[in-house]
Amino acid sequence: MPRLRLAESSLLFVGLAFCTRVAGALSGPAQAPISTPSIFAPVSRPAVVIDAYAWLVVAVCGVIFVLVAGLLCFALLRFRLRGDDDGREPPQVYGSNPLELAWTLIPLITVFLLSLVSIRVVGELQLETRPPDWMPVTVVGHQWWWELHYPELGITTANELHVPVSDPASPRPTFLNLQSQDVIHSFWIPQLAGKMDVVPGRQNHVWVEPARTGVYVGQCAEYCGTQHANMLLRVVVHTPEDFERWARGQQRQAVSEASVAEGRDLFLRTACVSCHTVRGTPAAGRVGPDLTHLMSRATLGAGALRNDAANLNAWIQSPDHFKPGVHMPAMGLQDAEINLVAGFLATLK
Ligand SMILES: [Cu+2]
Q1: What is the fold, at CATH topology level, of the domain defined by 2-126?
Q2: If we measure between CA atoms, which residue out of 264, 176, 154, 194 comes closest to residue 45?
Q3: Cα 306 to ligand 1 centroid, rounded to whole Å
Q4: pLDDT of 22
Q5: Ligand 1 midpoint to CA 227 (Å)
Q6: Could you say which of 144, 185, 217, 233 would form a disulfide bridge with 198 (CB–CB 3.0 to 4.6 Å)?
Q7: How far is the centre of ligand 1, averaged over its atoms, from the C-alpha of 114 (Å)?
Q8: How far is the CA of 303 from the centre of ligand 1 (A)?
């Protein structure tokens, strides 16, 4: 009974949609501008197209469900066992060509029409012809954080993707080239685009074209080890002017002679440099996130904790406390040394 199974899943889908809306309404104003990562509140083209397509399928399946369930209920009531029945089976009817034809052709036509729509939607998601104003970003999935490169702008950062808002009149989509450093991850920002696996040795692609500024949260969507749940991603959608400002800030070198020299020297003498890069210093490690503009990010450890002075100290002292199993060791520094190093990092705006 494939139609019934479809109907069941669409009912589940509608139920989930409803619960998400109710939960959204109950939870009140979300913490400031970060919107709930719901696939039912798309703000960017691939997600909008997928949302519309999903509702079309739900509507078609809903009609089928109502028809089938209605007929079933009708038959149950109309032909139920009544008091005046003699209990004998009514005459059975075998073979009706019009009926056979109807329940073969109607599902066939339905599936055929839906597949035509699917093909069109898949084509649209590929976006073969790119508008002139597109921006490339390379995303590298690591256990358990995201490395981000802007090849045209010469920017490297982590866990926070900044993109310009896209005006439908002159679209500015961002094309993401997805790679993995270790295992399979999955890149997913529910409000902006569908999920896309991030596979070692392969380059997958996804694009976003956000129509509204704001902060949209995403999450690795393929189990990738113990800290999979703490592999969050933020997408900050800026006005064009703000995006330029952000990009210029990132291109700048944050280290200067005026940087807290003691903390900087200690950082450079510690094994931190074999895993982290700070542009403008000899630190050029690639194992962990680029720290050149650490303080321009809102979180530490891919969303594990808020990025402030106290948390920075606590993280350096014991990253494992916040992300058990994390690939950054506690370096066994004295409290005073941690203060110095954190003091230096806190200047990297
Ligand atoms: Cu992952």
Answers
A1: Helix Hairpins (1.10.287)
A2: 194
A3: 20
A4: 46
A5: 8
A6: 185
A7: 33
A8: 13
Fold exhibited by the domain 135-251: Immunoglobulin-like (2.60.40)
**How far is ligand 1, taken at its centre, from the CA of residue 229, in Å?**
8
Q: Please give the distance, rounded to the nearest whole angstrom, from the Cα atom of residue 41 to the centre of ligand 1.
A: 24
Cα 233 to middle of ligand 1, angstroms: 10
338 close to 305: Cβ distance less than 8 angstroms: no
Which ranges in the chain are annotated with CATH 2.60.40.420? 135-251, 261-345
**Residue 200 alpha carbon to ligand 1 centre in Å:** 12
Instruction: For the chain, list the strands marked E by DSSP.
Output: 34-35, 135-142, 145-150, 155-158, 160-164, 174-180, 185-187, 196-198, 204-208, 214-219, 232-238, 299-300, 305-306
Q: What is the pLDDT of residues 166-197, one digit of tens each?
A: 988 888 999 999 999 999 999 999 999 999 99
Distance 220 CA to ligand 1 centre (A): 5
- Polymer length in residues for the chain: 349
CA–CA distance, 20 with 26 (Å, rounded to integer): 10
Residue the block writes with tokens 């959204």: 24
CA 244 to centroid of ligand 1, rounded, Å? 30
Judge whether 44 and 210 are in contact, CB under 8 Å: yes
43: exposed, middle or buried (C-beta count within 10 Å: 0-12, 13-18, 19+)?
A: buried
261-345: CATH class: mainly beta
Q: How far apart are CA 219 and CA 151, in angstroms?
A: 23
User: What value does the mean pLDDT of the chain take?
Assistant: 88
What are the start and end residues of each CATH 1.10.287.90 domain in the chain?
2-126
CA–centroid distance, residue 188 to ligand 1 (Å): 10
Closest CA to 161 of 146, 172, 173: 146
Token pair in block for residue 324: 């058990």
The beta-strand segments (E) located in 7-56 are 34-35
Residue 234 alpha carbon to ligand 1 centre in Å: 14
pLDDT value of position 170: 85
Burial letters 53-75, b for 16+ CB under 10 A, else e = bbeebbebbbebbeeeeeeeeee
- C-alpha span between 54 and 72 (Å, rounded): 26
